[in-house]
Structures are given as structure tokens and as C-alpha cells.
Design brief:
Layout (H helix, E strand, L loop, with lengths): L14 E3 L6 E2 L2 E2 L4 H5 L4 E4 L5 E4 L2 H19 L13 H12 L10 E7 L4 H7 L10 E7 L15 H18 L12 H8 L6 E8 L14 H4 L6
Antiparallel strand pairs: 1-5, 2-3, 4-5, 6-7, 7-8
Bound molecules: flavin mononucleotide (FMN).
Length: about 240
């Protein structure tokens, strides 16, 4: 993961050059970065040769490449509701599952299990779990389950972290899938009793979320989100 290339003369690795306007980094358009680039953390400058340079604080220059890729990824993820039948490569599935394994959990209890289901031949029973045509278009469905008896419980009020743990693992999985060009869709509106039957869940294992896993056959729509002013408060409610 490379940071920005040096802009000469190099000043202890803190300067970077890009090809023209400050809306591009590493040669790719990065519209989301514009306000950041325009902000006080960036000191725009021109090189001796006239090339546009931007200067990062040292700590940001270390992680600039990482930040760009992370924001690209979360921008790229969307709820895929049409899938190609193409198989998911075993190596990709392994990486996606590894991403879930590395997720943080309360007190590192890891109170989750992921059930990977091959859809072919099970379409009818899977539709009983979640009745949407696109749900069984992908070659795989993943059911993320929680084991509350293994989850960390906050002593003060008895709050059990299992659902939080499962959700973080699922988000790791979903973002890893996006990174590998695969599509997913969080599904919580499924029939829990049917899920218990179809996936053979024993007592004490709770299905929390499902997702198909396969190659997208649709396109993302616009990201509709509340503005930060409606989502963030500072210092107190
Ligand atoms: C916890 C959770 C449950 C969801 N359940 C469903 C669902 O049952 N069916 C569905 O089609 N989408 C479901 N979604 C997808 C949301 O509708 C979607 O994430 C949201 O509209 C934002 O769109 P985007 O994912 O394309 O950015 C769920 C998302 C989350 C996070």
C-alpha cells in the first residue's frame, strides 16, 4: 500500500506529487477527498517545475494510501439485489471468511459461527427463509449466527455483546467481499423459524443476519444518507 509519490525536492517523506488538480490521488479521481484536500491539513504548493504538489502532515502521509483505499471500499459497497450465477472462487471465499475471523469481539470471546450454504439444489427451502427471487441467484448464502452463552456480558447491567460481535464480523466479511469484487446484501427481515429449520440451528444458536455472496448483476444507486449534522453531536446530547 503506497503513500503518495515524493514531490521533489523531497522533504523527509512528507510531500507528495500528483498529476494536476488536488482532486486526484495516485492518479485516480477521488471526489470524496476534495474537502479533505481543501482543508487545513493540506498545504497546497507548486513545485519548482510547476507541478502541483500537496503536503501532508507526517502522520497522514504515512497512511494516505490506506485511507484512500478504505474510503473507496466503503463507497463501493452497496446492497446487491441481483446476482450472476458465476461461482465464487474458493480462494476468495477463504479470504472473506478470514476477514470475519479477524474481527474484534467483546473480551475476544468470538461468539459467532458462519454457515456457508451452497444454493444450488436448495433454492426452494432458502426461499422459505427469505422470499426474494434475488436471494437465491448467487451461488452462496452466508448465515451469521450468534452464541449468546459465549458472548461477553457487561457486569454492570447484563448487556450481552453477542449481536454487536456478530455484526462486526459480518461487516468485515461484507467489506472483504466488496474488496474482491463480490456482492452482498445484509438481510435481517428473514423468517427466523424457517432459518432455524433450514440451517439446522441447535438451541442457543441465534441467526442474526444473512447475505447472498456472488457477483453483482446490478448497479449501485446513489448513496442516500442523512447529513452529519443530523447524525453527530459533540460533547453531549
Ligand atoms: C441490519 C441490516 C438489515 C438489513 N436487512 C435487509 C433486508 O432484510 N432486506 C434487504 O433487502 N435489505 C436489507 N438491508 C439493506 C439496507 O436496506 C441497506 O443497507 C440500506 O438501504 C442502504 O443501502 P446500501 O446498502 O445500498 O448502501 C439491511 C441492512 C442492514 C444494515
Amino acid at each position: 500500500m503506497e503513500g503518495p509519490p515524493p514531490c521533489g525536492p523531497e522533504v523527509d517523506g512528507q510531500t507528495g506529487r500528483h498529476g494536476g488538480r488536488p482532486s486526484t490521488l495516485q492518479g485516480k479521481p477521488q471526489p470524496w477527498a476534495q474537502s479533505w484536500l481543501d482543508g487545513p491539513d493540506f498545504q497546497n504548493c507548486l513545485n519548482a517545475d510547476g507541478a502541483f504538489c500537496w503536503q501532508l502532515p507526517a502522520e497522514l502521509s504515512q497512511i494516505a494510501g490506506l485511507i484512500m483505499e478504505y474510503f473507496d471500499l466503503i463507497q463501493k459497497r452497496y446492497s446487491v439485489r441481483a446476482y450472476k450465477p458465476d461461482p465464487v472462487e474458493d480462494a476468495k471465499l477463504a479470504k472473506i471468511l478470514e476477514a470475519a475471523r479477524l474481527a474484534p469481539t467483546g473480551a475476544n470471546r468470538q461468539p459467532f459461527q458462519l454457515i456457508v450454504v451452497h444454493v444450488k439444489g436448495r433454492e426452494a427451502e432458502l426461499r422459505r427463509v427469505y422470499h426474494r427471487e434475488w436471494f437465491t441467484q448467487a451461488p452462496l448464502v452466508i448465515c451469521a449466527c450468534g452464541l449468546p452463552a459465549q458472548g461477553w456480558v457487561r457486569g454492570m447491567d447484563g448487556f450481552n455483546c453477542t449481536v454487536v460481535d456478530v455484526t462486526i464480523a459480518m461487516d468485515h466479511l461484507i467489506l472483504a467481499a466488496t474488496d474482491l469484487g463480490l456482492g452482498t446484501c445484509w438481510i435481517a427481515a428473514f423468517d427466523v423459524a424457517a432459518a432455524r429449520r433450514v440451517f439446522g440451528l441447535p438451541h442457543g444458536v441465534e441467526p442474526i443476519a444473512l447475505t447472498p455472496l456472488g457477483y453483482p448483476a446490478d448497479q449501485p444507486g446513489p448513496k442516500e444518507r442523512k447529513p452529519l449534522t443530523e447524525l453527530v453531536r459533540y460533547e453531549r446530547w
